[in-house]
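Just wondering, does anyone understand what follows?

——
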Amino acid sequence: MADSGDVGVKTLNFNVGVLGHVDSGKTSLARALSSTASTAAFDKNPQSRERGITLDLGFSSFTVDLPDHLRDTCGDRYQSLQFTLVDCPGHASLIRTIIGGAQIIDLMMLVVDVVKGIQTQTAECLLIGELTCPRMVVILNKTDLLPPAKRQSAIEKMTKRLHKTLENTRFKECPVIAVAAKPGGPEAPEADEPQGVPELMELLKRQTYLPRRDPHGSLLMAVDHCFSIRGQGTVMTGTVLQGSLAVNDTVEIPTLKVTKKVKSMQMFRKPVSKAMQGDRVGVCVTQFDPKLLERGMVCSPASLHTLHAAIISARKIGYFKGSLSTRGKFHITVGHETVMARVTFFGLHTAAETSTSSSDSAPCPLDTPFTYDREYLYQEDYVIGQGEGSSGPDPEQWALLEFERPVTCPLLCLVIGSKLDTDIHANTCRLAFQGRLLEGFEDKAYGETALPRLRICKMKHKEGQVERVTDDYTVIGRSLFKKETNLQLFVGLKVALSTGEAGVIEGGFGQSGKFKIRVPDGLCPETKQLLSSGSKKKGKGGGKAEPGKEDEPRAESHPISIHLHFKRYVFDPHKKMIQS
């Protein structure tokens, strides 16, 4: 945790995400709460100012005395508590930005327009909160728009509705508070005092806890703004996601493959010598063009990897109504990037092997660790539910993601797959699945170098028919292969006859895709009887058979089917067929 040692006061930083539907008044609320606006705060984006909508993660902060409950646990280390407000955009097309912000949040403030209630994006923000955040406070904003006589009953009614909505989430019984962050709306004069904000401030203080902060491990910092200061250098502002950082450290900007030395650092305009996980910090480097990095990652040299493909644990998000199909394309949000990827789902062979834990509300548990030693089963679709009526938990599953462009991110980071091209105004959840990044492939030629190690198999079943018997140990089969199939590939494979005998494919017979089967233990008398009765029927009527038709049995004969079962590894370059 950063101590603002240079200033003489030790401050605990606590990140509060302000999420909600567009126009619910998040930015006004952040403004009402804040005393110090950081560089990214309150919409630097001109498009956003015109529309009054937050288009990037705005950050601002205010500092209070350390609350009593924290004084008891960490008063020896900290004297004050700094709330960093992360104002996430609520505009539907910008859900990717929210996911980028949600990974650094200790407490979520879900802002709901008291007049409109829960809207599509409110629900999506709630889902993201469930995946990324342990605690939440719901704020009913714009209470000034309710008629004074009915205000209290309307607030109580909405509070009851929200508690009902939240009862099946990890946030059941979370506090709900009513405020008017900007009475009279955005155009109203500043003179109107916000209502309910001091009470909200007290509630936030009661909700704080000592977040788990770990200064160890390699540095990972999410940069959300980059600008130059004449005579100083370039300042990158962001949040330390893991590890720590000090003046004179060397950091890498992995997407650009450049390293820079940290010249100086600030936290909310106060100079500091070091920062650690959870801190908001401005880092000054020299000789770097800020236009090259508006947002992205900064890390310890050589600690982050740029991936062309990845393996993730996968769990469907229950509210998503679309299908999750292999070869489908999804928007994948990972680290601070969103990129299109093609998905291949795979799972364990038997339900008995699968884990029984499943939940939308917590990131995917890794009960069955992924390993290259295990054999997996290729799936055309994500498999939902087990047992009676498919009401059980989803079996454990994984997905191979093949990115359309490389992404830079740490292992085990949260991954969210969405359909962001769904109609923005449709009242439907666009978040499709979530998981953790388990393996990454840095080699551009991963298809040849890495995927053959991945033992994902497809089970194959072909069915043909016995045409005739040539002796007690040999039959001729048909309809198992196309005329153009290279039968040599199948020589030596085991087959089963529907009458019970086991046989082995010996080779082709003629030019029409027919083949010879050797039956090592010989044909049963009943099988010979069936086949001979078929051929006798064929011979009735005396006259010679038409040329070329001598092998074809009549429909009246009793067909004996031939079953060929084998498996093939999806990424095996030799396309070998394997039988157990």
